[in-house]
Write a structure and sequence with these properties.
This protein is an all-alpha fold. The chain is 72% helix and 0% strand.
């Protein structure tokens, strides 16, 4: 149970921190090699690009987990105060549907890349791994959106709950 709770609370953050750290180290080594040693690494830019792609898609999931995904808060204030909670839930439902659609199409793309067996030019890693990033990231996002919707529905009756400012400590 502790492992599941830890994964639920820290999975995306751990992956993002690891990817960003390795990305920084690889790019630092590349800069050192290029400008100090006068010899460029052939694989570093490709690895950095692929890690950045994964970082972005896992970061979307993290943003959904902390209820800070892209939305227009100013538009929310056009609605009467009594409606805002429901508008936010509708927005989360739309984002959930969007995430599921992305997973569906990204899965097809990743499977196609797996069947083709294409490899990346410099590192010779299978490209289906790179093309799996949207599928994995938005699958995690869909899970986080379900959690968010449940949280928001449970807290509909809270008197001081502002839908634009969720209580992140009680997720």
């Amino acid at each position: 149970m502790k492992l599941l709770k830890l994964l639920d609370e820290k999975l995306e953050m751990f992956i993002c921190i690891t990817l960003m750290s390795v990305l920084t180290i690889v790019l630092g080594i590349q800069v050192f090699m290029r400008y100090v040693m006068q010899a460029s690494l052939s694989w570093s830019e490709e690895l950095a690009r692929y890690m950045f792609v994964w970082l972005v898609y896992i970061g979307i999931s993290y943003g959904a987990k902390v209820m800070r995904h892209i939305k227009i808060d100013a538009g929310l204030y056009f609605f009467p105060k009594a409606w805002r909670r429901y508008v936010v839930i509708i927005g989360d439902c739309i984002f959930l549907i969007f995430s599921i659609v992305i997973v569906y199409f990204a899965w097809g793309l990743a499977v196609r890349q797996y069947m083709l067996g294409q490899l990346s030019p410099a590192m010779q890693i299978p490209l289906w791994i790179v093309y799996s990033a949207p599928c994995v990231g938005f699958a995690l996002t869909a899970i986080r959106e379900v959690q968010t919707i449940i949280y928001r529905i449970k807290h509909l009756g809270d008197p001081y709950e502002d839908p634009a400012e969720p209580d992140l400590e009680n997720l």
